[in-house]
From TrEMBL:
It is an enzyme of class 1 (oxidoreductase). The gene is kmo. It comes from the Bacteria. Its EC number is 1.14.13.9. It comes from Flavobacterium glycines. Belongs to the aromatic-ring hydroxylase family. KMO subfamily. InterPro entries: FAD-bd, FAD/NAD-bd_sf, Kynurenine_monooxygenase. It catalyses: L-kynurenine + NADPH + O2 + H(+) = 3-hydroxy-L-kynurenine + NADP(+) + H2O. Its cofactor is FAD. Pathway: Cofactor biosynthesis; NAD(+) biosynthesis; quinolinate from L-kynurenine: step 1/3. It holds the Pfam family FAD_binding_3. This is Kynurenine 3-monooxygenase. Residues 6-354 form the FAD-binding domain.
């Protein structure tokens, strides 16, 4: 057990509230601040982004005994339902029994705050943190950036305040602080598939629905109330873009042409389209993540990634698992806890950022590429035959808690093998012949 400290967590999002539970159960006094109102008290429209929770997320939740409470609000998805232009295909995510889980961000966040409060963490809502004094872990709170501020001093402060973190903002003004931020030219917008009159789902609720169309795509994840939350990803500008859809007729015609089987299930398409905002997607990297034994960044505040691997929250939750491991090993030596935490996490955060960005490229540029489809077909065939020798990259990221850096490295090695295989003569016709199998086995030996 560590000596009890007075700790502030800035941000009551998913990462901040789970961190609060871990810190409280480790014997600390925990105050969580958020600039927003208490989301449990505001009128909730029932609409919100859905997240896919996978192994790393569950491990962090189970690690502090709250996994089962969250399982009650999660829907397992064991497969992708791929809505092609003229057909519907199903593709299992992993082995028998392996699923990712659809959870509404709003429902999960409210649950996490409830759980953190029951554990004894105190929450302070509508409290805007404008700045922090790093050396003394003092928060500066006020109504406006230029108005009066109140100071609150702590033993340490965690910045769990998301991709545009104010805590990081202060650290950025230190010398030797590296920082980069890159926006995609793709944005996203939410749409809604309501439940049937009897409360049932209009599509299979245990599938992650995807309408891949090259540079744009639609996805849909199920909610407990029978509805689905859809997200349309599309370039901001250009031929098929948000800018090109300017009125009701254009939106309806676009969906009719490109997502025809979705039209019947999204009754308020044009209303949703023009009412809901178009949001941006950013990759943000920085280092260091900590300042002496006083300040640590965690979650999106130190590694925001694009959502194409469904790992942002999972990675943030894994930060907590690793931080806690360091707390157990180094006890009261918080400087060591922090330095080992950032040393362990930074390469993994960079790896999942890279994998997520590659997945975006893969979905936007390669899905229609014949060579790429052939590669996927061969990989699937070989992996089914030799599950012990070829674990697909997706499974390494999603159904494992091995480091992301390892998944990236093995994925690169597998890609190099596949490049050689695709160079084999007449590969289009011999792709499932023994000579291809033997070639892969032989190349695997060179690892
Ligand atoms: C379209 C989309 C789909 C996604 N899908 C997935 C998915 O399927 N699976 C997955 O694992 N991840 C997914 N993610 C990523 C996931 O949403 C984030 O990684 C996760 O929400 C990060 O949590 P966080 O607590 O670090 O930050 P946030 O959720 O951003 O929370 C930050 C909190 O800090 C508060 N705050 C900010 N500034 C201040 C301040 N100055 N003072 C006080 N409070 C402040 C905010 O009000 C907020 O409550 C997706 C993201 C997007 C955009």
């Amino acid at each position: 057990m560590q000596t009890s400290k007075k700790i502030a967590v800035v941000g009551s999002g998913l990462v901040g509230s789970l961190l609060a539970i871990y810190l409280k159960k480790s014997g600390h006094t925990v105050h969580v601040y958020d600039r927003s109102p208490d989301i449990r008290k505001i009128q909730f429209s029932g609409r919100s982004i859905n997240l896919a929770m996978s192994n790393r997320g569950w491990k962090a939740l189970d690690g502090v005994g709250v996994g089962d409470a969250v399982r009650e609000i999660a829907i397992p998805m064991d497969k992708r339902a791929i809505h092609l232009v003229d057909s519907l295909k199903f593709q299992n995510y992993g082995q028998e029994g392996e699923s990712i889980y659809s959870i509404s961000r709003g429902t999960l966040n409210r649950k996490m705050i409830d759980l953190a409060e029951s554990a004894g963490a105190e929450f302070f809502f509508e409290q805007k943190i404008w700045d922090v004094t790093l050396a003394s872990a003092t928060l500066h709170i006020g109504e406006t950036e230029r108005g009066e501020w109140e100071d609150r001093k702590y033993d340490m402060v965690f910045g769990a305040d998301g991709a545009f973190s104010r805590i990081r903002h202060r650290m950025q003004r230190q010398s030797m602080f590296n920082y980069s931020q890159e926006f995609l030219n793709i944005g996203y917008k939410e749409l809604h598939i309501p439940a049937n009159a009897d409360g049932s789902h209009k599509l299979d609720k245990n599938s992650f629905h995807i309408w891949p169309r090259g540079e744009y795509m639609l996805i849909a994840l199920s909610n407990l109330d029978g509805s689905f939350t859809c997200t349309l990803f599309m370039p901001f500008e250009g031929e098929n873009s948000f800018a090109s859809l300017t009125d009701r007729k254009e939106v309806e015609a676009f969906f009719e042409k490109n997502f025809s089987d979705s039209v019947d299930v999204i009754p308020n398409l044009a209303e949703d389209f023009f009412r809901n905002p178009t949001s941006t997607l950013v990759t943000m990297k920085c280092f260091p993540w900590t300042y002496t034994d006083k300040i640590a960044l965690i979650g999106d505040a130190c590694h925001a990634i694009v959502p194409f691997y469904g790992q942002g929250m999972n990675a943030g939750f894994e930060d907590i698992t690793v931080l806690y491991e360091m707390m157990l090993v180094y006890g009261d030596d918080w400087e060591k806890v922090f330095s080992e935490y950032e040393k362990s996490r930074k390469p993994n955060a960079d790896a999942i950022a890279e994998l997520s960005y590659r997945n975006f490229l893969e979905m936007s540029t390669k899905t229609a590429d014949d060579k790429f489809l052939l590669q996927k077909k061969i990989e699937k065939w070989f992996s089914d035959k030799h599950p012990d020798k070829w674990v697909p990259l997706y499974s390494r990221v999603t159904f494992s808690d091995r480091p992301y850096v390892e998944a990236l490295a093995i994925g690169d090695f597998q890609n190099a093998i596949m490049e050689e295989v695709l160079r084999m003569e007449n590969i289009e016709n011999i792709w499932n012949f023994p000579e291809v199998e033997n070639k892969i086995l032989e190349l695997l030996q060179s690892q």
